[in-house]
Structures are given as C-alpha cells and as structure tokens.
Design brief:
Blueprint lengths: L2 H12 L3 H23 L2 H17 L10 H35 L11 H12 L4 H11 L5 H8 L3 H23 L1
Length: 182
C-alpha cells in the first residue's frame, strides 16, 4: 500500500473514522499476525497481540495525523506489544517461582497447594499491609508494566529507591507466602 494512502487512512482514523480503522485492520492483520506468530509461536496469543495493536492505534488516534511513516509506526507498536507479552511472561514466571518455592516448603499434600485465585488474594492482602508508596511502586511495575525509570519519574523518586521498594516488597511477599503455606 502506498505511503500516501496509509497516511490518508491515519488522518481519517485521527478524525474518528471506524471505517478507516477497519480498512487498516483488513490490510495489515494477516501480515502482522504472521510476523507475531513467528516470534511467539502461539496462534491465539498472536491474534490477541495483533488485536491489541489496532486497539492501541485507535486509542492513540489523536496523534496519528502527525505520523510520517505509518507502516513503521504499525510495526513498532506490533514489536512493542510482542515485547510486552514477553515481559508479562517473565513476571508471571517470577510469580510462579515465588509460589513454587512456597509450595515446596509446605508439608501439605499437592491438593492443598495454592491455586492462582488464592495466590492473588494473598498477594493483595499482603500488599495492603505495605506503605502506600510501596504498593504504588509494586503495582506500577508488576501490573502496569512501567519501567523503573518511568516509575521514578512519575513518583519523583530515585531509581535506586524504586529498586529497593521492589526488592523489599518481593522479599515481604515471599515471607508472607511462606507463612501462609505452613
């Protein structure tokens, strides 16, 4: 698709045209899907990531008229959404490690081990006992995917304070989970 046609679609989307978004979706979905599928190796997740790309485009439609290279913009969002998925996997793996460590130290049978909803409840309960600042830092990092630098900027704290809060919070959560599993 020629760049001027893509720019025109972006301008129409910026004006609120759902039809233009649908045209963009129809033109790019298969290409982006195959691009993401090669990386993530999961059809369902690849579809979800690509849908998130178009949702992001719609949510940021006010700034689309200023985009000079629409195709590069679309691929950058796609790459970032795939990276976000990997980041969530890493965070989920860290959480799973905490649970597994807690479960391994538990003398109870396998059927007594924590399930995900129990774990979420325990984490929320433990987080509520922390200071407001530590809660906010943890939630921004783990649930909202902010980097340490972004959190530091938004909260007017140093990056080392953010790292300390996160490490103290994770240590505290591990301790709480160990206590609960005993």
């Amino acid at each position: 698709m020629p760049v001027h046609n893509e720019k025109r679609l972006f301008e129409e989307i910026a004006s609120g045209s759902e039809r233009a978004l649908r045209l963009l979706y129809d033109r790019y979905f298969n290409t982006l899907y195959n691009y993401v599928l090669k990386t993530l190796k999961d059809e369902g997740i690849a579809k979800e990531v690509v849908q998130d790309v178009f949702l992001k485009i719609w949510e940021n439609r006010d700034s689309l008229a200023n985009v000079d290279a629409p195709q590069a913009y679309i691929y950058a969002i796609t790459r970032n959404k795939a990276l976000d998925y990997f980041r969530r996997l890493v965070k989920d793996a860290q959480l799973a490690d905490i649970v597994e460590e807690s479960n391994l130290k538990s003398p109870h049978a396998a059927d007594d081990r924590m399930n995900v909803s129990d774990l979420k409840g325990l984490i929320l309960e433990a987080l509520n006992k922390l200071s407001d600042q530590k809660q906010k830092v943890f939630k921004m990092s783990r649930y909202e995917d902010f980097s340490h630098d972004e959190i530091a900027d938004q909260l007017n704290l140093s990056k080392s304070t953010i790292k300390n809060h996160l490490s103290e919070t994770l240590r505290y959560l591990k301790e709480q989970l160990k206590l609960t599993s005993n």
